[in-house]
Amino acid sequence: MSSKFITAGVIGWPVSHSRSPIIHNHWVHQYGLAGCYGLFPVAPGNLEKALQGIRALGIAGCNITIPYKIEAMKFMDWIDPLAERIGAINTVVVQANGELHGFNTDGFGYVQSLRDANPQWRADLGPVVIVGAGGAARSIIVSMINEGARDIRIINRTMSKAQDLAEEFGNTVNAVDWADRHNVLNDAALLTNTTSQGMVNEPALDLNIRQLPKSALVSDVIYAPLETPLLTQAKKQGNTTVNGLGMLIHQARPAFHAWFGVMPDCTQELNQKIINTF
After folding, report:
1. Which residues have C-beta within 8 Å of that of residue 5, sequence separation ≥ 6?
2. 45, 122, 157, 234: most buried, per Cβ within 10 A?
C-alpha cells in the first residue's frame, strides 16, 4: 500500500447527486489512508480533455457515470473484456505508465447485493426476468450469463431494444413483448427492474407481480427511494426484496481496491450513512 496521497473521483454531468464521495471517503477514513475522492462535473464536449487531465494530474482514476459510460470507452488505452462485452465502463484506473484502463464493476455489485439478501442465491435456480434494456440491463444480463443463468427474459416497452439484446447475447436471452409482461412471471426465480420507473418523481413500474412465485427474489437498481412501489408490493406478498443500495456500494469496492490498494467491506455503518442523505 502506497503512503502517497491518492486522489480519485467521479466524472459525469451532473454529478452533484452522486453518493460515491460518501462511500469512498468513508473507506479512506476507515482504513486510515492518505487520500480523497471528489466530484468531477464534466460538461458535454469536454470528456476527452477531462480523461487526459486525470492522467496528467496524477489522479489514480475515476468512476464514470451518466451520460459518459459508453463514450468514455473511446478514450481508453485498454478495456477489460467484461466491460467490452457489456459495452460500457464505470471505472477508469490510471496505470503506472499513464495508460487509462477501463472496467465495469456494475455486474459484480449487482450479484453481491443478491447474495447479501440470499446467500444461497444462484442464477440457475430458474428464469431471470429483467425489465428495461439500457446500460444497467446490459451489465446484469452479462453477469447473469456468467453466473450460469439458463433463461433470461427481457421486458421493454420498445420491443426492438429487447430484441437487439436477445440477438446480441444469444439463445439464453429472449425478448418479451410489453403486452405479455405479466404472463412471463409465473415461474421466475428473479425479477429485476433496471428502468427509472419507481424512482423519486417518476411513476411506478406498470407491472402486476401477483403471478410471481413467493420464492422469487425481487430487486430494483433504484436506491432513491430505498423501497420503490415494486419492492413494497413484492414484500407484501412475501418475496425477498433487494434495493439498489447494495449494488451501489458493492460496485465501488473493486474500484477502491484498484486505486487505494485495499478491498473494503460493505458495512451497516456505511449503509446508514448513505440512507441519512435521503
Report:
1. 34, 35, 36
2. 234
Cell of 196: 427509472
Check: CB of residue 253 under 8 Å from CB of residue 157.
no
Q: Give the C-alpha separation, 95 to 80, whole Å.
A: 13
Q: What is the DSSP string of 134-171?
A: SHHHHHHHHHHHHTT-S-EEEE-SSHHHHHHHHHHH-T
Q: Which of 49, 69, 74, 161 is catalytic?
A: 69
Which three cell numbers mark 52?
487526459
pLDDT in tens, 66-101: 999 999 999 999 999 999 999 999 999 999 999 999
Where in 197-262 does DSSP place strands (E)?
A: 217-220, 240-242
State how beta strands 217-220 and 61-64 pair: unpaired
Q: Would you call 74 a catalytic residue per the annotation?
A: no
